[in-house]
Write a structure and sequence with these properties.
Layout: E1 11-15, E2 18-22, E3 79-84, E4 90-96, E5 112-119, E6 122-125, E7 129-131, E8 138-142, E9 145-149, E10 157-167, E11 173-182, E12 191-199, E13 203-211, E14 214-217, H1 223-235, E15 240-242, H2 245-249, E16 269-276, E17 279-282, E18 286-287, E19 290-291, E20 300-301, H3 306-321, H4 339-342, H5 347-351, H6 370-377, H7 382-389, H8 406-420, H9 424-433, E21 462-463, H10 465-476, E22 481-482, E23 485-486, H11 490-496, E24 505-509, E25 512-515, E26 518-522, H12 524-527, E27 534-540, E28 544-549, E29 553-559, H13 567-577
Helix pairs in contact: 3-8, 3-9, 6-7, 7-8
């Protein structure tokens, strides 16, 4: 019997020793997130001809890098290594406070040789999270992208991949996208790349160009597990809606969603959103040249939010396991911290940044000092950071005065590492982050460059926006429980959520205090409440806040123009959340 023209058979295509399903015409069958159209795309930029060239090229709207309307399922399979070498091509400075432009090779990508595996219309990096490179300034974060066909690409399939550059030893993060054409046999075009946004207060730029590149097909180990894990990652994200849908879902509130995040300059706003009643209402993730094509996996640096969700959650989790853990002495676990200044300083004192050891108690004076910048932030060794952090003189009794020191978080994290006799961050990932089903980008962190390989404690994590919501709701909505199991000490969680009479130590203003790694805003006057209202929040350098609002609502924004206020937003969200009651 003759086969009907469109009868699909499961034939086998041998490629790199891997078997793929094809139809009766030898065309690759899609097995995940498949497309239903024919590949007719009206493309005016980054077309087939452009991707056969190299050089500076030109800066284009990032819509050219996203999956377009009309895209068809890919007819080629990518499984193997993508390789290219960085060159200095297109670059434009937007802001450069410390003359980074003078640093060697700062205007080029790191050399690139990483493995990817295709799953349906998605392209997944084999290695996720922060990747060490041979570049003197930039490390890489690779995220999953998309693969598709366009009829005018002459039998090639087209791939688009989000990536980020993160500053070596720091948290400054620049988000980009790259694209290329390929065939299953290893044929490929140039790679076009573009960076047009960042979360970085002091260094901002545009980077772009077209580079020679190679695709080396090779069978990937654990391919099935990589694909399965990725599907779970996507499935486990909270459902999203556009932020404007808050007005649709809560029409009686008369909320003006245009006022949400209005206190941050829009050009400096990477991501923002609200989570409420099981829905993640997401704002735009705009760049200087259009919307970022991969908002769900945009890399968002933690900066000091890590003081809450790294050292804060770490200490609360260990206090839950071993009651009294928070009272242990720093001097007993960090030998570089002299007993004369640290024997009476507890782990909790250090989390509260109330060690009594400082130079100047003025707001952010120690933190922004030349001594701190050179001795701590620009010192990339564990011994250097530890010796500096332990070197402050005793000025007041522990637990009596708050003085902001990122170095305190480093000391605490080092003490916890010594207590556990294992990598403290790996312990946190296994104990808290994995049960919360966070993304793989949180499996890694910035570390020192010596044999100690020590994590920072007070900065150095990277989030996806879904991670931000889950980490905040873990305390705000679930009170430190996962699947009914209490993972964080209940008393410390209640202190964070302001369910006790103690509201922390005064922290820089009449309206702010600090406790257990969280800031606390006295919000009743701003929101017109008749009784005291305290709202905990997390804060990060440059303009990052994650607010744990009453009645199980949360709000976050990541920006980089030193605009931290969210009073206007809180007033609007109060129309829905009824925070005073």
């Amino acid at each position: 019997m003759k086969l009907k023209k469109y009868l699909v058979l499961l034939l086998l295509l041998t490629f790199s020793n891997t078997l793929y399903a094809t139809n009766s015409f030898g065309q690759l069958l899609c097995d995940y997130d498949c497309l239903t159209v024919n590949g007719f795309v009206n493309r005016s930029v980054l077309n087939f001809r452009t991707l056969q060239t190299t050089g500076i090229g030109r800066f284009v709207n990032l819509s050219a890098y996203q999956l377009p309307r009309g895209a068809a399922n890919p007819s080629n399979m990518f499984e193997g290594n993508l390789q290219f070498s960085g060159e200095t091509l297109g670059w434009f400075s937007v802001k450069d406070t410390f003359n980074y432009a003078a640093i060697t090779n700062v205007k080029q990508l790191p050399d690139f040789n990483y493995q990817f595996i295709q799953h349906g219309t998605h392209l997944i990096p084999v290695s996720r999270g922060l990747q060490t490179t041979n570049h003197n300034l930039w490390q890489l974060i690779l995220e999953p992208g998309r693969v598709w066909n366009e009829i005018r690409d002459n039998g090639f399939s087209r791939a688009s991949l989000p990536f980020s550059l993160q500053e070596y030893g720091a948290n400054c993060t620049h988000n980009g996208v790259l694209t290329f054409l390929f065939k299953s046999d290893g044929s490929m075009s140039s790679v076009a790349y573009e960076i047009a946004s960042e979360t970085c207060e002091y260094y901002q730029f545009n980077l772009y160009g077209l580079l020679n590149a190679n695709y080396f097909p090779v069978q990937i180990d654990n391919a099935a597990a990589i694909k399965s894990n990725y599907e779970s990652e996507v499935t486990n994200r909270m459902p999203t809606k556009p932020l404007s849908d808050l007005a649709v879902d809560y029409p009686r509130s008369r909320i003006n969603t245009n006022l949400i995040a209005s206190e941050q300059t829009s050009a400096n706003l990477s991501a923002y959103g609200v989570a409420y009643n099981g829905v993640h209402y997401t704002g735009n993730c705009t760049t200087r040249f259009g919307s970022y094509p991969y908002c769900d996996v945009m890399s968002l640096p933690s900066y000091s939010v890590a003081k809450s969700v790294f050292t804060g959650y770490q200490l609360m989790a260990l206090e839950q396991i071993n009651p009294g853990f928070k009272t242990l002495s720093i001097a007993d676990f960090v030998s570089a911290c002299p007993a004369s200044q640290w024997s009476d300083v507890s782990f909790e004192n250090t989390l509260d940044m109330a060690t009594g050891n400082y130079t100047d108690s003025g707001f952010q004076v120690d933190e922004s000092s030349v001594a701190m910048i050179n001795g701590f932030f620009l010192n990339y060794t564990d011994s250097g950071k530890t010796n500096f952090s332990c070197g402050y003189a005793r000025q007041s009794p522990p637990s009596t005065k708050w003085v902001y020191h990122t170095s305190d978080s480093y000391v605490l994290n080092k003490a916890i590492t010594r207590y556990l006799s294992q990598d403290s961050y790996a312990w946190l990932v296994n104990t808290i982050y994995q049960p919360l089903r966070l993304s793989p980008v949180l499996n890694t962190s910035v570390r020192t460059v010596d044999i100690a390989n020590q994590t920072m404690g007070g900065y150095g994590l990277t989030f996806h926006r879904d991670d931000v919501v889950k980490l905040a709701e873990f305390v705000n909505n679930s009170q430190g429980k996962v699947d009914g199991q209490q993972l964080l000490d209940k008393t410390m969680v209640e202190q964070v959520l302001q369910k006790t009479n103690y509201h922390g130590l005064s922290a820089g203003s009449l309206y702010d205090s600090y406790d257990n790694g969280f800031w606390i805003w006295k919000a009743d006057a701003a929101l017109g409440c008749n009784t005291d209202l305290y709202i905990p929040y997390m804060s990060g350098f440059g303009g990052i806040s994650v607010a744990l609002l009453p009645n199980n609502m949360l709000y976050y924004f990541f920006s980089d123009n030193n605009e931290h206020s969210f009073i206007t937003t809180a007033r609007e969200l109060n129309k829905i959340g009824d925070f005073c009651n």
